[in-house]
Amino acid sequence: MVKQCCIPGCDKSSSTAHLYKVPAKRFCSGAKYEWAESLEKVIQSVRRDTHLDELYRRDDLKICENHFKPSDFLKGRFQANLKIGAIPTLNMPEKRFPGVKRRKASPSTSNKLECTDTVYHQNLQDLENSAARYLPKSWQFQMKDDHVMLYSGSDIVIPPKITMKIHTSLKIHLAYYGWFLNTSAAIESIHVKNTTLSDIIRTVTDFSVCKGIVSESDSNFETVGIIKHYAMSYDCSAEMHTVPSPPTPHLIAQRSKRCKLFLRLGDKCRPCRHAEWRLRALNN
Question: How far apart are CA 165 and CA 151, in angstroms?
């Protein structure tokens, strides 16, 4: 499918020029996040329309090479790559919206994390206040001394499907059916201080979850570093007023011990992919 440069008045497409993907802020951190934010400001200063919002939502925004200086590129093995911090300055139209600071997409039409300079949470008390007003009914909130816990999932499965632990430093730890992950690129893309609780929850639930390793035999699991991820489930066939039967183990997935769990893109993390390759080599 032919892609088009997002700059107004530019007729370049993927068939006539090399297009570079505009990085999405929700997938970036540090210097790359600041770069994505600067690019967004430049693009929003020359263009504002519903199609642009849709491209942002799909993370499918492209800009062609004709808008960058030669010094903005790094030589790659097969093609030049944009340097982090490169800003389009060539062949640009006149600014139509010079005062634009942020794109304000409607929550009903976009699942993109909206992170601005506005401070929503300075401490755990602010998070508790947000939870009292905006927490979805499917989520539960608990306030602790040095952190808060948010849960999502059915009562018939222990532990909950998604557990979010936010510390006094406003750093997030996430768990999927009890599998806790201290950090990952996906988690680090969430800025609790500058993001509404609704957007934090929406972003977390929109993450892909690594499907783990597919193998009918568990031989060589210990050698490769694979463990089975279980949760406990209850039998729901009985009437609600009766005492539930004892919980039984429910296999969620087979994972590498270094599984990244939450993914921005794809359905399997690199550690699990590598472990699966090693397992196939050993079993063959």
Answer: 9
Burial 27-66 (b: 16+ CB within 10 A, else e): bbbeeebebbbebbebbbbbbeeeebbebbeebebbbbbb
- Tokens 């499917």 found at: 138
**What tokens does 96 get?**
């139509």
Amino acid symbol at 235: D
Query: Where do runs of H (alpha helix) occur along the chain?
Result: 30-46, 50-58, 124-134, 185-188, 197-206, 221-224, 270-283
pLDDT for position 144: 87
Beta carbons within 10 angstroms of residue 274's beta carbon: 14
Cα separation, 49 vs 108, in Å, equals 16
Q: What is the pLDDT of residue 34?
A: 87
- The percent of residues above 90 in pLDDT, for the chain, comes to 20
Domain definitions of the chain by residue range: 1-98, 124-206, 221-238+245-283
Judged by DSSP in three states, 231 sits in: strand
Q: Check: CB of residue 32 under 8 Å from CB of residue 67.
A: no
In angstroms, how far is CA 21 from the centroid of its own chain? Answer: 17
- pTM exceeds 0.85 for this model: no
Longest dimension (CA), the chain: 73
Kindly give, in sequence order, each residue whose CB lies less than 8 Å from that of residue 176, ignoring residues fewer than 6 positions away.
161, 162, 209, 252, 261, 262
pLDDT tens-digit profile of 15-41? 899 999 998 887 777 788 889 889 988
- Is the pLDDT at 170 greater than 70? The verdict is yes
